[in-house]
Design goal:
The structure is a single chain. With 733 residues, this protein is α/β, with parallel strands linked by helices. The chain folds into five domains: 2-61 and 707-729, no CATH class; 72-205 and 659-678, von Willebrand factor, type A domain (Rossmann fold); 209-313, Immunoglobulin-like (Sandwich), CATH 2.60.40.10; 317-543, 3-Layer(aba) Sandwich (Rossmann fold); 553-650, Macroglobulin (MG2) domain (Immunoglobulin-like), CATH 2.60.40.1930. The protein is built from 15 helices and 36 strands. The strands form eight sheets. An eight-stranded mixed sheet has the order 17-16-18-19-25-24-23-21. The protein has a six-stranded mixed sheet with strand order 5-4-3-6-7-35. A five-stranded mixed sheet has the order 9-15-14-11-12, with no helix packed on it. Helix 5 packs parallel to helix 12. The longest helix is centred in the first third of the chain and has 23 residues, at 11-33.
């Protein structure tokens, strides 16, 4: 107990006023006492002084501070690790960490039954987040561990109630979120001890053996009967110089579609996997899985597979582009232009030197009607064998398309005059045709009668299409042709009215001759890039006789086909009519649904329309699994098309990248907060020996104000009334 004062002003001011008031009071009474008698006089003076003293005492505001013991409820928080690393079998006698932890948890549940009711025991499970304790969760499934975050969240959940102790069970691995030591520093200031119980071996990572499928690259699209190349990455730990079997699985196939053996050299822990191929026979979305065949002695086998989705298209057009030794930008920009068309697949081959002994750098099978369209880009005739030239000409007559582009080794300059290929081109070729290379470049001007033809139509509006052609920049130059064939159509010409783009039907096929290169169009404005893309798509479709096969098309494109839980997936949707023009005023109804039994209702995805294209994002906040995103495009309430795409959501398996227990971290956290790190067999003894009064009782300093209560006021008023009564009785009032 102690006495304290809190004067209404500075001590010197209060003291001065007190002396002054006491002096005036005594002086006034002494003046009145003259000529009077009786002891009552002094008693009245005493009462007046007593009242003044009480008043002055109230100005000092005295209080008595008394220490009192009070009761409170406190929480004992038990945290159980449910991350995947707890599935490791490196406890005593090969027991799993998870099983050992559950056994200790049951012992804790029995021990806490004897604790007083003032100590509220809370059980939680944790990985990257804090979860309610659910005994029905029989397996550790968390893909990451965030000890710092879960400790902070567990304290918040106590709603301001004091935390007596944290009992933290686990292997100490923390690979996400706040640093556990930073949180432990804060708990130290709050006087919250952390008691830890560790499981697992600190050398599990170094001595363990494991195979893991880490990466898979395929697609995202392929074509029926076309070979799809699949690549991947395999993590290897503990199997040096041993053969490792890798398989490629396809959903719906009863056995692997491809397999390969790899070997990890000593000290190498990541191996690229190449050479796996898959030739689909049916269209649709295929789930591909790269699988490492488990080996005896593996620490875990749940990470031996990795999957993704690939869209297999039917009726896709196969285009072969052959480039000679001269450098050109055209292949680069052509690839970009046709890459936006999932139904067109382009293969690029470079023929850098002439054929020797009737054998070129390119296999003959490439020209034996293997592709739908062939493009020769600045390649001389001598770089293809005579047999290949004949095969190419025959392929065109049988129904393939052929386009020759200009260059210093094309047309007459490339020695194509008199070849088998020359007879299927729409123009005559002579060795001395020469080049047309004005300094200002060469404008490509659509022929007046061909401006609205399929190849030349860059807009649905004829006038707008003409304007776009006029705004396109000039090309750098062009080869000169001889006169067009009788059955040919001049589609475009130079300002001097020389033909520069000519087309013709040849047998069951078609051919185009373009004297220049188109890449300058793609390097200017956005309108030029779109015009370049449209020109090439229409040229390829025309050559393949597919210009009339179009229909309203709604296509959904995902930026990725596999994401981890919590990641964002961006989606793009296009709506096009039969002429590949954007369908305006369209709305997209987009949903995402998890596949399989027991899946929740589909989620709606917000998609914003941008002139016939839709953009949106989906955040994978649900559980791992196979998902499908579906879209229905409508205009004026009527459906114009629909599409869907599947993708995979997976749990981040960083837990298995470093399976070693971090018992040192658990010890540091305990020491830092004033707790203790205990072996599993000692935790029940620790609970029974807990001095719970330290947490459920606390000493509080209680202030009792002497001046601020009714007895003090009553005493003050009584003194003044008695003093007044005496003065009244004796005539002083």
């Amino acid at each position: 107990m102690s006495l304290s004062f809190s004067p209404i002003g500075p001590w010197i001011a209060v003291s001065t006023v007190a002396i002054l008031v006491m002096g005036i009071t005594v002086w006034a009474y002494l003046q009145r006492l003259r000529g009077s008698t009786g002891r009552w006089r002094w008693f009245a003076l005493g009462l007046r002084l007593f009242a003044v003293i009480l008043c002055l005492l109230a100005a000092l505001r005295p209080s008595v501070i008394v220490s009192e013991k009070k009761k409170q409820t406190a929480s004992l928080v038990v945290l159980l690790d449910r991350s995947k690393s707890m599935g490791m079998s490196d406890e005593r006698a090969g027991q799993r960490r998870w099983n050992a932890e559950l056994k200790v948890a049951e012992e804790i549940r029995e021990a806490v039954k004897d604790l007083p009711p003032d100590l509220d025991v809370k059980f939680y499970r944790y990985d990257s987040e804090l979860h309610d304790d659910k005994p029905e969760d029989t397996e550790p499934t968390g893909g990451a561990t965030a000890i710092g975050d879960i400790l902070t969240e567990a304290q918040k959940r106590q709603g301001g109630k004091r935390v007596a102790q944290f009992l933290l069970l686990g292997d100490g691995g923390s690979n996400k979120g706040l640093s556990p030591l930073i949180v432990a520093e804060r708990f130290k200031t709050l006087q919250i001890p952390i008691v830890t119980v560790g499981f697992g071996s600190e050398t599990a990572g170094a001595s363990s053996r494991d195979l893991a499928a880490k990466d898979l690259v395929a697609g995202p699209t392929g074509f029926v009967k076309n070979q799809l190349q699949v690549r991947g990455t395999i993590g290897v730990r503990g199997f040096p110089n041993q053969p490792i079997d890798v398989e490629l699985l396809v959903e719906g196939e009863s056995k692997p579609v491809a397999s390969i053996k790899i070997t990890a050299k000593q000290g190498v822990d990541v191996i690229p996997v190449t050479g796996l191929t898959y030739t689909p026979t049916t269209p649709g979305e295929k789930k591909l899985t790269l699988r490492v065949v488990p080996k005896d002695g593996e620490l875990v086998s749940t990470n031996n597979e990795i999957s993704t989705f690939v869209t297999i298209l039917k009726g896709g057009l196969s285009v072969l582009y052959v480039q000679g030794k001269n450098f050109s930008y055209d292949p680069k920009y052509l690839d970009r232009a046709l890459d936006s068309s999932p139904d067109i697949e382009v293969k690029f081959i470079a023929a850098r030197r002439p054929a020797q002994g009737g054998v070129s750098l390119i296999d003959d099978t490439e020209f034996d009607s293997k592709h739908d369209v062939y493009i020769l880009g600045d390649v001389p005739a001598s770089h293809l064998s005579r047999n290949q030239q004949k095969l190419l000409a025959n392929a065109v007559e049988k129904g393939a398309g052929l386009m020759m582009l200009g260059g210093y080794d094309s047309f007459g300059a490339g020695g194509w005059s008199g070849t088998e290929v020359a007879r299927v081109l729409p123009v005559e070729i002579h060795p001395g045709d020469g080049q047309n290379e004005p300094k200002a470049g060469l404008k490509v001007i659509p022929n007046a009668t061909a401006i609205d033809s399929y190849i030349m139509q860059l807009s649905a509006n004829k006038a707008e299409s003409k304007r776009i052609w006029e705004d396109l920049p000039p090309i750098t130059g062009a080869n000169r042709f001889g006169k067009p064939a009788l059955a040919a159509t001049v589609l475009a010409q130079t300002p001097n009215r020389e033909p520069i783009l000519v087309g013709m039907d040849v047998g069951r096929g078609r051919s185009l001759a373009f004297g220049g290169e188109t890449w300058p169009w793609a390097r200017t404005t956005e309108e030029g890039r779109l015009a370049h893309r449209k020109f090439w798509r229409q040229a390829v479709l025309w050559l393949a006789k597919k210009e009339n096969d179009g229909e309203n098309q709604v296509k959904i494109t995902l930026d990725r086909r596999r994401i981890s839980v919590g990641q964002k997936l961006d989606v793009s949707i296009t709506a096009r009519d039969a002429k590949s023009e954007p369908i305006t005023d369209v709305t997209f109804e987009t949903t995402v649904a998890r596949e399989g039994a027991g899946a929740p209702a589909p989620e709606r995805v917000e998609v914003f329309n941008q002139g016939g294209d839709g953009k949106g994002s989906y955040y994978a906040t649900s559980t791992a699994g196979d998902y499908k995103m579906s879209v229905i495009a409508k205009r004026n309430g009527q459906e114009v098309g629909r599409d869907s795409a599947r993708f995979l959501v997976y749990e981040d398996d960083r837990e298995l990248e470093n399976p070693a227990a971090d018992l040192a971290l658990l010890r540091q956290m305990a020491e830092l907060t004033g707790g203790v790190s205990l072996p599993a067999e000692s935790i029940t003894k620790h609970i029974r020996e807990m001095k719970t009064d330290e947490f459920t009782e606390y000493t509080s300093q209680v202030e009792h104000r002497i001046w601020d209560n009714w007895p003090f006021l009553l005493l003050f008023v009584t003194a003044l009334l008695l003093e007044w009564f005496l003065r009244k009785r004796h005539g002083w009032v």
